[in-house]
Amino acid sequence: MTGHDDHLTILYRGPLASCDYDCPYCPFAKRRDTPEQLRADRAALERFVAWVSAQAHPVSVLFTPWGEGLVRSWYRRALVELSHLPHVERVAIQTNLSHRVDWTADADLSTLALWATYHPGQVPYERFIGKCTDLNERDVRFSVGIVGQPEHLETARKLRADLPPATYLWVNAAEGRAYTDAEAAIWTELDPLFPYSRHPHASRGQACRTGDSVISVDGEGTVRRCHFIPTVLGNLYDDSFRRALGPRPCPLDVCDCHIGYVHLEPLGLYDVFAGGILERIPHLTKEHSPPRGQLT
């Protein structure tokens, strides 16, 4: 089917756009979906889960909603259901952890993972770190991250100190912010992989797994190679996308989002994040850390 061992990774983003937080750097802050929009999102997600359930080849899924999915029962059910399917290798979701985490007790924890982001100012620190402690006690696989704003630095340091050493703390470069080498060095002390986030990656003409073994799917089943390239490859539900799968270079000048550039083959991030691509958990060893001066 594809050029990478017949395994298909799907980035799913349905109509859901509502969020319970109002982060100043997010255009979807405190947005409210109408009941009709929520019903449409639920129906779209259930249709997608049914499609995944019917597949015979290995599949991994990362839910990347514009809003917060885990406050919606249908996302929690979807994660639990997909985690138990034998051909689903990983199912993960990006989340702010605002909802309780006891639902994970029903999931297959060898398959489920969470990509959690802490948003200072939106939730008390102790409440967030308490959720992380709960997840650790439940043996749920997850990463924790924060945006590299100067005002977040002390909180990030506290997170690193309070999280178990084995829990990866990632730092996203703030959009549009130019970091001095000194500033970048401070954030790299917390996240050794921060240099990958610091600058957009020149991507035009570069080999990328998207459109081959990785696809983006919306609520209508429209398939694109990734969230950032509008060209349609086909539709998931009529199988028309499959004939369009294949290796292809990136047509964009730059790629500046982790869920995009992690699939750029020249970066070698499939080795860095071996076993943790979707949940952003690296297999971090000395040889996988960016050499001093690289990517700066």
UniProtKB/TrEMBL annotation:
Stretches of the chain forming a coiled coil according to its record: none
* Xref: InterPro entries: Aldolase_TIM, Radical_SAM_STM4011-like, rSAM_sf
| Record's protein name | Radical SAM protein
Please give the organism: Actinomadura fulvescens
> Which classification does the entry list for the species?
Bacteria, Bacillati, Actinomycetota, Actinomycetes, Streptosporangiales
